[in-house]
Amino acid sequence: MIVTDIKTYICHCYRTNWVFCRVETDSGIYGVGEATLEYRELTVAQAILELKRYLVGKNPHDIEAFWHDTYRDAYWRGGPVLMSALSAVEMALWDIKGKDLGVPVYQLLGGKVRDRIPCYANGWFAPAKRPDEFAAKAKETVTAGFKGLKWDPFGSAWQTINKKELTASIQCVEAVVDAVGDEVEILIEGHGRFNVPTAIRIAKELERFNILWFEEPLPPDNKEGLAELRRKVNVPIAAGERLYSRYEFREFFRLGCADFIQPDVSHAGGIMELRKIAAMAECHHIPFCPHNPSGPVANAATLQLAACTPNFAFIETMSSDVPWRSEISTEQVKIEDGCMLIPDKPGLGVDIIPDAIGNHPYTPKDLRHYRGDLTDIRPKEAKSIVSE
């Protein structure tokens, strides 16, 4: 078996654009991957195509050799574009290997340690603006079976937050906590917003809510600041979605930056790279909780890791999504008792439908995090969390 081609597909999904690839072989077996690099979708799609010369004519089973040679030969190595492109193609090669051998990818990585993984909801809040609206959406989400809720209550704040804005943010957290009770985990998203003293101030306000974690409170390029913050506050810190290989995580672990780590399978090098990062975390007794707000292929790959990684603790789901997600893929997510079930199909267990993707062409989108419209993440006709 040899690789004959790599193709890319971009699908508009309202808040961003999903980026998929398909690696084809002369046997008729193909694999799919995802590199949804928000707001740089055209760039990463081109980067995927530039990897063709490393793969066409090669054996798709030689995944480690492909990864090593591609990373070695990237003189300007690392960074989100190269690593996202590499992630998508690596993911597709694992899909091919699993299909060719007739087993799920997790069987190739040591087999199952679980058949389901606790799941927390993201996106459940759309389009709430006021604390009472967040509270109502939270009740709906918990009624639907979710036992963890993540959101960013900080409006359009950047670096600092004034007293009035902070009060409003904490009132939002309080309204959700009061609405869902003590049995639901609360995860507060920071989106890399704040400077060190502001993050400390916010974290101290959050202490009384017994949150599971405060996520990415600082910009991702300040590991020392994150470690300093963690030493000074009494809430757990989660971070790592914008680190792009095991080499960046080495310093992250050495400094003691976080209590939970969150590499993204679409950006940090793919399935095996996340497996290696998870092993590094396991040596530090740190839970592994990958960032996972992307499309159906990334979700499928993350589920394969959930199946075989002992310190995998929680999986994220973008619970409110575009109505056509089920049209452009064969994804069949199943959630029971607050857990996402792990499928047993060969490979990644999911496929994309190129003709349907063509009905939702690339649409440029800009980052909304600091504009005040963060909760505008889905079209009005999108399904409710209750129907998940």
For the largest beta-sheet, the strand count, sense and barrel status come to: 5 strands, parallel
Q: Enumerate how many helices there are, as a single number.
A: 12
CATH architectural category of the largest domain: Alpha-Beta Barrel
Query: What is the CATH H-level superfamily of the largest domain?
Result: Enolase-like C-terminal domain
In spatial order, strands of the major sheet run 5-6-7-8-9
Strand content: 5-15%
**Which class best fits the helix and strand makeup?**
alpha/beta
Distance between the termini: 39 Å
> What is the averaged pLDDT score?
95
For the secondary structure, the number of strands is 12
Categorize the overall geometry.
globular
SSE order, one letter for each helix or strand: EEEHHHHEHEHEHEHEHEHHEEEH
Question: What's the structural domain tally?
Answer: 2
As for the CATH topology of the largest domain, it is TIM Barrel
Q: Report the radius of gyration as a whole number of Å.
A: 20 Å
CATH class of the largest domain: Alpha Beta
Summarize the amount of helix as a percent range. 25-40%
What does the model show?
This protein is of the alpha/beta class and 388 residues long. The chain folds into two domains: 3-102, 2-Layer Sandwich (Enolase-like, domain 1), CATH 3.30.390; 107-353 and 368-387, TIM Barrel, CATH 3.20.20. Helix content is 36%, strand content 15%. It is built from twelve helices and twelve strands. It has helices at 41-49, 52-55, 63-73, 80-101, 131-143, 163-180, 196-206, 223-232, 246-255, 271-283, 296-308, 354-357, and strands at 3-12, 17-25, 30-34, 116-122, 148-151, 185-189, 213-215, 237-239, 260-261, 315-318, 335-336, 339-341. A five-stranded parallel beta sheet has the order 5-6-7-8-9. The longest helix has 22 residues, at 80-101. The radius of gyration is 20 Å and the shape is globular.
